[in-house]
Specification:
Elements: E1 25-29, E2 38-42, E3 48-50, E4 61-63, E5 66-67, E6 82-84, E7 90-92, E8 101-108, E9 111-134, E10 139-143, E11 147-150, E12 153-156, H1 195-209, E13 210-217, E14 225-234, H2 237-249, E15 255-260, E16 269-274, H3 277-286, H4 295-309, E17 310-313, E18 316-321, H5 324-337, E19 341-343, E20 352-356, H6 359-370, E21 393-410, E22 414-417, E23 420-423, H7 436-444, E24 445-449, H8 452-460, E25 470-472, H9 483-486, H10 489-498, E26 503-507, H11 516-523, E27 528-533, H12 539-545, H13 552-564, E28 569-576, H14 584-597, E29 602-606, H15 613-624, H16 629-635, H17 644-660, H18 694-697
Length: 710
Amino acid sequence: MRWSGQELTTEQAGALPGLARLNNLVRSVRTPEFDGITFHEVLAKSALNRVPGQSAMPFGWTINPYRGCSHACTYCLSPETLILMADGRQKPLWEVRVGDAIIGTRTEGAYRRYVQTTVLAAWNTRKRGHRITLADGTEVVASGDHRFLTERGWKYVTGATSGGAQRPYLTTNNALIGFGLNGLTETTQPHFFAPSYRRGYLTGMIRGDGMMISRDYPHRARGGSKVRLFRLASADPEALNRSRLFLEQEDVRTQSRPFAVASDTRRAINSIYSGKVENYVRITELIQWPESPDSDWHAGYLAGVFDAEGSCSQGILRISNTDVAILDTIQRSMGELGIDHVLEDPRPTGARGVRVTGGLPMRSKFFNLTGPVIDRKLSITGRAVKSDAELQVVGIEDLGATIDMIDITTGTGDFIANGVVSHNCFARPTHNYLDLDAGKDFDNEIIVKVNVAEVLRKELTRPTWGRHPVALGTNTDPYQRAEGRYRLMPGIIAALADSGTPFSILTKGTLLRRDLDLLVEASQHVPVDLAMSIAIYDDALQQAVEPGTPSTKARLATVSAIRERGLDCSVFMMPVLPFLTDTRAHLDEAMRQAKAAGATGVLYSSLHLKPGVKEWYFRWLEQDHPELLPTYRELYKRGTYAPKEYRRWLAERIQPLIRAHGLQRRREDPATGGILSTALTAPGRPENPETPPPSLIAAELPPELSPTLF
């Protein structure tokens, strides 16, 4: 699945792509409040997703403002290790896939050089973790069996000088080989979505490579005329696309057209342009030199002017121009961001270059702090593996815990991890390749469609839109923790209500209470169905299984808050965990608490485990409930779903409890067609012969509705 030209559906669940290469990626950001999570902010081209006709889902349309879920309902966290890709960017290890082009090393003559290589295999393992800390602040977490290249050759993280464990190992007398992270943390990324970064980028890009044409023709008919034209041409579509998107965010709409055709010596060049006077005036305002620019503006300016005029030949990064103001501002911005540089002597053409000094560490710092978008300028292939970085080992800490780890095999037998040369770990043939995306990435690589509300509103105004019911929360939770930061749902709710589109929301996030006024107002115009996902009523178990989610008590309080505002709210007991939450006592207590909170119905489904997710869940079982592991292996040995016999047994146990507590669905409005409907046939969709009878559906939803949780 690629995100450029994206149109996600609930059926799509492929691996995350190389997000840094995508034209509609705005930024990737990490913040201390979401430790271990990376948010990839994209500009979506589509908000409404049609569910494929062959799907058994009881709805036809969905909206997913997020892909992935920051609730973190899986069980093992491994440290991020940044892998140097062939395009010069760094990507977390669990995003790296078999077949990806990355950077390794190879000895050529007297030098070891960075070369492009390919990922041949990837797998998961669990080993005791150790943290290696270097003098420049670089940290790497690895197993004791992992090897790094030092000035004295390859050395294991741990070892001994004698006995059976004898092998060369790291000490504080060693220095690693590479360029390190230069003291950077993964939160030191530019704020791509900040207005000042955006305007800085446009200033650097347009002043560096754009044209602002202003001409008056006084002798023409009707008293003369004025021509105001903006044009930006580039052979690199990434830079053009970012500039176009940034201009749109400043209310400047541009058009695209070819500028020069490709030849044997030149790539094709395209352009964006506008001949509107108001756009010309607005762009002129945007690229004025600010009196007191902040660090975001400096970062954006350097990114823009580098994309326009920069180069990185043989690892030497420079930005050239003849304009004194541009050169002075480049130097000022580099000084503000702590990037070492020199101003080179003039060339015969009059151009001068500002060159980044300090080798690969400073080059890496430039790219991390500024975020230029053109891939081809970032590669270091062919460079000798040497630098002045302070990579002396200053600490080796046993973390005292066994953690999940990921390793890869490459064509060169090594790769660059957090800026240092790392050897492939010892790989046993018994390791099975996992879909690394299904467990870890779902919780830690979150796609955020920052413009989803605006795109949705445009789609809902199309004459072809039939106001079909729309479901939210069917794939990822719209009120996950990240919603507190991005506030996408108010715009979505307003757009749906204003267009007369009925909708339903399924969430485990108590943040829904923030939007209750909006939901009440929306319900006066369109049918609105709400449901809270509350699967576990044992506090200790709930925190173990869903460590990043609101407590059961908090979610039940949200049900009560919804009911107090006059809205119906069902409880989704999804999934029921075999031999953990399927006891009669647990189910009866769950019904009692749901009824006391005011729930208008309970729906349920048994646990299902997709490939990849199954492995992560089994690892959690092995750690917290090892006695159940053999039983689960037997129960799910045939595939994703629990056997029909178990599901039948569960239905016979839970349905009488639903009736006894009066929690059958009281509201049966077939006009909604939403996820809380008692019928599984969405508007315009033929009845599915595989669908269970309505008497069962009233209590149990199909397993396909569980991926919100696992």
